[in-house]
Design goal:
Radius of gyration: 22 Å
Number of helices: 7
CATH superfamily of the largest domain: FAD/NAD(P)-binding domain
Bound molecules: flavin-adenine dinucleotide
CATH class of the largest domain: Alpha Beta
Number of domains: 3
Distance between the termini: 33 Å
Helix content: 10-25%
Shape: globular
């Protein structure tokens, strides 16, 4: 343990990196904390990119994350790590050394691998503030336009709902006939599919083979042999860890305390994954990234300043998917070796079509809960997740 207070360097100042810094300060950590972040214009609340920036409800400045007292935040892109000297190298030539380094560089949109995309076709993504601006420019008036959304998961469904509300005809292409089944279970996933089919031209269980120009439009050729012409194409088929730069393109594998392989190195949020019992636990949600950032902070305090061991990180947070007038809420996790069952309602079902499913592990312990139009009940059941 260093005799002086340890220096903490956090790469990435989004949900996880910022929460790590805040937790360290909240627990009285007196050493230096430096965040270096590559987001053009500074880190943002990414959850608002589709909900507030795209519809023009808020500006880039309004979704910027505010400063944290006692934490130095600078702009910069990390390009390499050096375990030996415990330094991180940045594109601007800086090499920053620290006692504890937290990798919290998030994720980037998945590339359209496997799709033959003609170079003339413009593909949109929605990850950064710049992406939201480009989409607004490309589709200034959605009414009467046909928009393809590739990916029928969380982001794709919210995007499809946005464009349907704005008057567009949406072609929603999803690889699985049971969207988000891994997270929602067998009762709620079909409800989501029914919503998608009811409000969009949903092509579920289908993939895109090729995207070619067709006058001012683009033509999607699908795996079922059909094709469809659209005015704009948005890729929303997931994200991959933004960790190439750290020599770990598949993400940073951490232990259950969020330690990377070498002493003094940690990772949290979408950049990290925990491998346990043949399962790869990743986080794709804001609150989970925050919880991991906080957990990494408590591990650092334990490792360097003999604070209490925080114990293993257990996912208890979740997400709400709001689309087409319905809300799907999830807390905790569906364990791959566990099972699902209808949950006993802790309160009266709020509406006749509400569904509540709980997930238990192989020992029957509650690991998660999901609800369709049942947010309050989900929150009640979630309070029992161990
Ligand atoms: C459009 C959209 C809508 C979403 N909506 C929701 C929602 O409603 N609810 C929900 O729970 N989740 C939502 N999410 C997911 C949520 O935003 C992420 O799970 C969360 O931001 C992950 O936190 P993070 O800290 O790992 O990454 P981020 O918050 O993305 O932060 C990572 C930071 O690291 C920076 N960085 C990347 N590479 C480097 C580098 N080499 N050097 C330095 N800095 C680097 C990035 O610029 C970024 O600022 C949404 C995501 C998107 C894209």
């Amino acid at each position: 343990m260093p005799e002086r207070s340890p220096r903490v360097l956090i790469v990435g100042g989004g949900a996880a990196g910022r929460a790590c810094a805040q937790e360290l300060r909240a627990r009285g950590f007196a050493g230096s904390i430096q965040i270096v972040d590559a987001e053009p214009g500074g880190a943002i609340d990414r959850t608002l990119v589709d909900k507030a920036l795209l519809p023009g409800l808020l500006t880039r400045e309004q979704i910027a994350l505010p400063p944290i007292e006692g934490v130095v935040v600078t702009a910069g892109e990390a390009i390499a790590v050096d375990f030996g000297t415990k330094t991180v190298e940045f594109r601007d030539g800086r090499r920053l050394a620290a006692d504890a380094v937290v990798i919290a560089s998030g994720a980037v949109p998945r590339r359209p691998d496997g799709i033959d995309v003609a170079s003339e076709v413009q593909l949109h993504r929605l990850h950064t503030a710049h992406d939201a601006g480009a989409l607004r420019e490309s589709i200034p008036q959605a009414a009467g336009r046909r928009v393809a959304v590739i990916g029928a998961g969380f982001s794709g469904t919210e995007l499809a709902s946005h464009y349907v509300d704005a008057g567009a005809e949406v072609v929603l292409v999803g690889r699985s006939a049971m969207p988000l089944a891994g997270a929602l279970g067998s009762e709620i996933s079909p409800r989501l599919a029914a919503l998608q089919r009811g409000r969009t031209d949903a092509r579920l269980g289908t993939t895109v083979h090729a995207i070619t120009p067709c006058g001012a439009r683009a033509r999607l050729s699908l795996s079922d042999g059909s094709s469809v012409e659209v005015d704009a194409v948005i890729l929303a088929h997931g994200a991959v860890p933004a960790t190439d730069w750290a020599g770990s393109p598949d993400g940073i594998r951490v232990d259950d305390r969020l330690r990377w392989s070498e002493r003094g190195w940690y990772a949290a949020g979408s950049a990290a994954y925990i491998a346990s019992g043949g399962m790869r636990l990743t986080t794709d949600h804001w609150n989970a990234a925050v919880a991991q950032g906080q957990h990494a902070a408590r591990t650092i305090l334990h490792d360097f300043l003999d604070a209490e061991d925080p114990g293993p990180y257990r996912p208890t947070t979740g997400f709400n998917l709001r689309a087409f007038g319905s809300t799907i809420s999830v807390r905790g996790l569906r364990s791959p070796d566990g099972s699902e069952r209808p949950a006993a309602w802790p309160i009266a079902p709020p509406q006749p079509d509400a569904v509540l499913t709980e997930f238990v592990d192989a020992h029957g312990e509650l690991t998660g809960v999901a609800g369709f139009n049942a947010g309050a009940a989900v929150a009640r059941v979630a309070s029992s997740i161990g």
